[in-house]
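Quick one: histidine kinase from Natrarchaeobius chitinivorans, structure tokens please.
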Amino acid sequence: MTDGLVKMSGLLRFGDSWPIYLIGGLSFALSVTHVYRLLFIDMPSTTTFVFRDIGPFFAGLAVLVGVFLLYKQKLAFQYQLRILGWFLAGLNTLALIGFFMTLTQQSGIQFLDMPVYLILNSATAGAGIGLIVGLYDVRSKHRDDALRGLHDATQNLLEAESKEKAGQITADAAQSVIQLPLTGFWLRKGDNLELVAMSETAEQVIEEHPDFEKGEGSLAWEVYEKQEPKLFEDLSIEEDVHNPDTAVKSEYIVPVGEHGVMINGSLSRGEFSSMQLELSRLMAVHTELVLDRIERAESLETREQELQKQNERLEQFASVVSHDLRNPINVIDGYLSLARETHAEEDFDEIRTAVDRMEDLVDDLLALARSGESIQNRSPVGLRSVAENAGNNVDLEGLELELGSELGMVEADESRLQQLFENLFRNAVEHAENADTIRVEPTSNGIAIEDNGSGIPEEKQDSIFDYGYTSSDSGTGLGLAIVQEVIEGHNWEISVSEAKDEGARFEIRIPEEHRINRSKPETKVS
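--- reply ---
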């Protein structure tokens, strides 16, 4: 990592610095000439000595110090050229003015006898004025260029379709526009600030890409929670530095609203200019507005998808009501007429059967409506206890329920998870011919529920979760559709295949972030 950071320190010079070297060389020559005059030229009086030599000497020294500070700014090459132009213009202009003043005041004097101090002092004054004007001009030009660059970056931000893409645009703009090559963008995800983007230079030279966990103590979380930008000029004296051995000496951390933080780093202490700090805050404001827009768009898209699913569900409900409920209603109507005439017990039995069928359909429709709601609140749930409760609520009709070892815990809605198990168990009871066992066992990425019955033909496995699909005359065709809705509400996945005992096997894949642990080995229950 150290080699990479040394490499980056060379990149921070932003091209050749010969204009600054030339300015420094000329300033040094002026200062040396003033020193020579102070040491070796006799002065006629103290007043003349002070105003003719001491004052210009300190002026030349101030110019030299200014050039050194300018070098520390590591300006881009085009800005160095502009300052060089103003420096030379000031130096030459006043030097010529001093030369012509000498000619005017001492006409007829030989060139070698001219008082060169006037030309030297004028040149020194001109160098100082040119340097000051150049710095002001470059600052204005730099600010204008940076604002144009930020405007272009903002236009790119407006086209970003994700928060991660917006973060990358922000990090790239920090390097190219604000001249902060060590920039990263962290988004809040739960209790973590996760790194989602880095500038090109930082990506090349920094090996460790850290995330920050809430509560572990970090400068990033301190700034995020206070929602105030903060400059850490010397990381060596800070207590909550994530990596105390880092070669980064200072950081400027800017919150991006509730979305995350932007961290700008430097290999030196006190390297951030006031303009860089101001532009970083402005960039963070623009990014926050864009992230707000992306968040609203994502929320709207999610809402539209939910509305579309609700519309589809309403259409499916309408189909069930109009078709499946109509059949038992017709049966009731027909046998009711016969019962009035015959008063036969079997007619009333048929009516009772049709009513039971309607009750099953209504119950499943209500369960299906609730199962389709997205999961808002999750809590730690033990899979074994939920499966056991589901087994107690279902008439297993003699089937043995085996719960495998280390089922563990998940983040889920316990009521709806139990509903899922109940429907899978009930499906095995109703459709698994010749089965005597239902097993629930852990897998590498979730759990599996299987039976040892006749199984599901491969050509029908893709259809069993469809609304209304059933292979039984008494089934509603909604049980496995409810299972599918619960799975989608949790953002999990389910598939069906053949079990090792040739029965049906339902595999539920649970994302790692929803799995808590694996419990100790568990015993068989029935």
